[in-house]
Amino acid sequence: MVKRDMLNILNVYEQAGYETSTFATTPTPLSAQKEATRAAEAGFDLIVAAGGDGTINEVVNGIAPLKKRPKMAIIPAGTTNDYARALKVSRDDPLEAAKVILKNQTIKMDIGKIQAFLPGENGEAGEKKPVRYFMNIAALGTLSELTYAVPSAMKSLYGYLAYLVKGAELLTRLKPVSAKVSFDDGEYEGDISMIFLALTNSVAGFETIVPDAKLDDGKFTLLIVKKSNLWQIAQLVSQVLKGGAHIKNPNLIYKKTSKVRIDPLNGDPIKVNLDGEYGGDAPMTFDNLKQHIEFVANIEAMGTDDTTDKIKEQFVEQVEKLEAKGGHHDLPEEPAEQADK
C-alpha cells in the first residue's frame, strides 16, 4: 500500500514544506538503521519510517546515539504497529498517516537505552555489549517470546488473531525465570513469570496494560508478574481487559522508574524482547532517555482507547475458556513457596 501511494505521500510532505527523497531498505542487516544514521548526519530535518515496529526500532537505533537528532514520523506498514497506536497515527491508510504532518503537532518521546553484559565470574556482569535502544516495550519471560514465535506469514494473514492463538498455546507452558530486578526505589528477587518495561500505553494492541502511561516523563512503567500458575495468569489478563484493575493484583509489581537492572540468578540466559523482536539476553541495564526523539503525532487524538471490540472479544473468549478449566480444577494450585517475599 505504501508503494501504491508513494507519490501522494511524498506530495503531502512537500505540502508541509519538506524536500523529499526515498530509500528502500534491503535484506542487508541494519539497512534502515544505517540509512537513518546517514540521513541524520547529512543534515535531514525529518526521517519518515514506513514499516512496522521493527523498522521504527531500527531507525530509532540509527539516530538515538547522535547529538543532533532529526524529527521522526511514521507510516505504519508492518504486521504490528503498536507505536502508531500510541501516536494515534492511522494504521490502515498510509496516506492518512502521512497527513498527520499537516497538523504540525509533535511530541518529544522518551527512548529506552539498553546496556547488555556478557556473563562474568561468580554471577557478576562481565564485558559490555554494544548499546541498543527501544521505543516501546522490553519484555522477558515465556510470553515475551510471543511476537517472534508467530510466523510472519501468519501475522500477515491473520493479524492479531495470530497472537491470540499463539498466546493461548504459550499460556499452557509458562516457565518462570529466576532473576533479580532492581529499580529506582527498590528491588525484587525470585522466580518471575513475566517482566514488561513499557514506554507507551500500547502493548500488544491494548492500551489498558499501562493505563497511566506518560510518553515524555522520563519514566518507564515496570510490570513484574511474580511466579504464577495458569489460573493466576488468566485472572490477570481478565483484569487487564476490564479496564486496568490488574495494577492492584497482589501477584503484580507495578512501578514507575527511570532505571532498571535485570540479572539472572541461576546462570541461565534470559531472552529479552525489544519492540517485538529478539534483543539479546540479560544481564541488562535499562535507562530512560527523557524526551530524546521528537515524533510527529496526532496529539489531539491522544488519550482515547481505540482497542477494537473484535480483538478484545477474542481475548475475553480465550480467558473465559481458561477460567472454565480452572473451575474444573484442571489447573495447578499455587504452591506454598509462591507466597510473597
What can you see in these coordinates?
There is one protein chain. With 341 residues, the chain is α+β, with helices and mostly antiparallel strands. It has two domains: 6-109 and 295-301, Rossmann fold, CATH 3.40.50; 111-291 and 308-327, Tumour Suppressor Smad4 (Sandwich). The protein is 28% helix and 30% strand. The protein has helices spanning 6-15, 31-41, 53-63, 82-87, 94-98, 146-149, 152-158, 160-171, 230-241, 309-327; strands at residues 46-51, 71-76, 106-119, 125-128, 132-134, 137-141, 177-183, 186-198, 220-226, 252-257, 259-264, 270-274, 277-282, 284-296. The strands form two sheets. Strands 3, 4, 5, 6, 7, 8, 9, 10, 11, 12, 13 and 14 form a twelve-stranded antiparallel β-sheet that branches. β12 and β13 (277-282) form a beta hairpin. α9 (230-241) runs antiparallel to α10. It starts with 5 loop residues before the first helix and ends in a 14-residue tail after the last helix.
